[in-house]
């Protein structure tokens, strides 16, 4: 299988977002389960992850936040309501942007939550035009993550905060588990995957300070098995659409990812001095 390109990432989201929402949730990110979660549903666990990231974003009420890689807007709306801020979301997928704007309108939030088509690698905003930046499970899709981080630092005002959630690689995988990591890169459109230390170094190199990472791999890993279960439960419905071969690859990969500790997940906050 050839390495995915940014165009592949865009096409995948354009084509498959609606299906993914049916299978998983309007939050296009993993869930957070801990010992207190019990039988917590996917919807509750994905909101919990949003809340964990909200707790790491420092922005005063009335502030303006950029959401990089906004999906269909569910995290942005929760963030806007929790912190009483304005949110501008961007996505590389136009259908996502349309759906996100419709959702903000339906929720009565369109006056302070809006979405537009843009590439995180070339943000269409002036320098220092946001009080905070939020990037929830989007930066692993960047072909040149340092460039995206430089863009984020540029549009963030001095003193502003960045909060991000993303996949990381704990250590190089070997043997069969290397094949799983390779399949995750290919099928997941994962163009940037590094250790937490390397991620933090990239943030510091573009000028961020007070970089603080929390490893939530254990709390988010159940998402992989639950993904496999969710796709398997809709196998008959999805087979004509995805094809049985691709569907089985998705199910198998997610089962394997649930047993691959090399892949981790991190919540990071950082400040622009
Ligand atoms: C896993 S989804 C997460 C969506 C959303 N943050 C959420 O948690 O529901 C990744 C998002 O990144 C966006 N994305 C990927 N590459 C991008 C790029 N180069 N510029 C802007 N958005 C991008 C995708 O369109 C998608 O909205």
Structural account:
The protein has 273 residues and is α/β, with parallel strands linked by helices. It has a single domain, classed as 3-Layer(aba) Sandwich (Rossmann fold). Helix 4 links the parallel strand 2 and strand 3. Helix 6 packs across helix 11. The longest helix has 18 residues. It is globular. The termini are far apart. The model has no long low-confidence stretch (mean pLDDT 96).
Quick tags:
7 strands, 19% strand, 273 residues, 7-stranded mixed sheet, Rossmann fold, binds S-adenosylmethionine, alpha/beta, globular, 46% helix
The proportion of residues in beta strands is 15-25%
Largest sheet: 7 strands, mixed
Bound molecules: S-adenosylmethionine
The name CATH uses for the topology is Rossmann fold
Total number of domains = 1
Short note summarizing the structure:
By secondary structure, the protein is α/β, with parallel strands linked by helices. It has helices spanning 6-23, 42-54, 74-83, 94-106, 145-155, 175-187, 196-205, 217-220, 222-233, 235-242, 244-257, and strands at residues 64-68, 86-91, 113-117, 130-136, 156-169, 209-215, 263-271.
